[in-house]
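Allow me, if you will, to draw on your knowledge of protein folds for a short while. Thank you for your consideration; the sequence and its tokens are set out here:
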Amino acid sequence: MDEIKHELDNDDAMQIIKAVKKNYKPTNIRTLTKETKSIAKSIKEIIDNSHERKWLFPVFQRDYAWGQSRVKSLLESILLDNFIGSFLMWKIKNKKDLPFETRDIGEKEYNDTINAIGIILDGKQRITSLYKVLKEKDPKFPYYYVNFLSLANRYIPDKKKIQPDIIITTKKELNDDYMYKNFYFPLYKISQYKEWCDKLKDYHEEDQDISYFIDNFIEEKLRHFWEDPIVPVISLHEHIRSESVPMIFELINTKGLKLNTFDILVAHLAHRSQFSIELRPVWNNLLDNNLEIKRGYKIFKQDLPLSIIQAMHLYYSGGKLSPSEKNILNMFDKRYRHDSSKFDSSKFYKEWNDFVEITREAIRKFTTKYGVLNEKFLPATSLLPPLIANLKRAREIKTNIPTAYDKIDTWYWSAVFSGEYKAGTTTVMAKDAEVVKNWLETNKLPRENVITKARSMWSDKKESINRLKELNPKSAMYKGVLSLLVLKDPQDFFTSEGYTSRAENDADKDHIFPEDMFKENNNKYKKKIPKELREYADSVINKTILSIRGNRGLKSDSPPSDIVKELIKEYKSKPQKLKDILDSHLITKEAFQAMKDDNFEAFLDARGKAILEEIIKRIMPPQNLTQPRNTTQPNKNDTNRDDQNRARQTQPNKTEHNP
């Protein structure tokens, strides 16, 4: 949350207050909204209608998703008399036969429409934000305050401005004395703004300038905010056919600020199937009650439900078309149409459930076989849809399951280390789905594919180590290296405890050569780390995974040579234990010697080679992947056992050390 800063002394505060009297002219908002006065609503009416459940929201709309910055922007726009857009409402005529489920402002399903006068189709995020700030005491939602001195500061000429323009700030609940003294208005008290202003005047006693400031600026702004009709509410006629409503919602949200394709599809299916496919409650129920899906959501966020839909498209199209929004909607139109007017909802639900089960398997692979403990270790969300599609195909084609899973693992690591996967790479998804489909079914790879590209990229040792040095921390390849380190279960240097045996959020990445050694003013290490090497301080080669709670040693600013001395002393009688610990961090004999000498250049080269070996082991297909296809029917129960066998087969050889 924001910390309240820039508190003013009395002289500065009075200068701003007097400037308001001189320069501020209240806006006649009624003139501005004259043409739309008949359809405009005040914030008070909007809140009251939502609270009294006169306004409801269709269940196929997405959940509340706004962050603090957007909420602040909305509140500031109202205070500054800026247009915040209109709301679209469908007036209800037949309340008893509403053709879809609804929610109230609290996100709870609410189908008692006795009091309802309309369904909000556009404006849910804004209305919910206002409700949470002004009405609901949600413990997870911060308190929002108007800094009236900062707002008034806008009426001081630019060259003489005193206060930064932070009009809306968030903080835990402030006491009255602080608010009155610094002119902070708590927006949760907007319905009692007049009483609050009276108390504010009493606090400042008889000062005429402050009284003017409160009466003509603060109270006027709050009255306008709460009572003036400033938001146009456009109503669809009550005689519009109910089955057209989701289609209208879909059309609205495919223009302007884009919704997630999953959100569009939810409305699309509701429309096309005459409301017989209700995907939103199905997804919410799954997210609430399935632990694996819940864990996957922590990693993939809102991309998880979308990824399931994209995977369905990749599987059924065979990778011939990218899973773009248009192609996905077209596919669902064709695939689930039972006759000229109705979708086959039972077929959809069956296939959806099948893909949910495959998604759970994909999440397990990410967390146990691909080293993705949490979202910080995820190379790219766009890897999930083709992985789900590939796993689905591996289960259903007539091939040997262990061979199929080896191929999928090889594809995954090749995709990570090809640099092809970024956000929204739908074309790459489709291409890879087709490549893996053919590889699984015919045991053949096309001339150009992600696997051969990755092998080519990492074939030259010198060039590859230079690439590792320069990887961007936000890139899929950088995070892929971190994932490889996770799979080694790196042990704490002094407790020898592997952090993956602890909570998943106990993982931390840290420098091996500490940041202090790279500072410009650190004369002690200028010769050890010349200027041309300082840019590699944050290189992935100089990072390892540590336990947040258990680690010491690398957490200090000591040079590696000091850590090495402690390690040798600690494990003098247990050299094999030290070897195992170093192996778990991909620190070879040469890399360990470079740490002992504080030789960063030698360390980059030695550890870079060890990391490169790990990459090559995963992007080079095992020999059995080129054997003729086996026509044995796959056994789904073999999946977990195969994962365990594959993990043992790919364990790297440990490098000898001589500390």
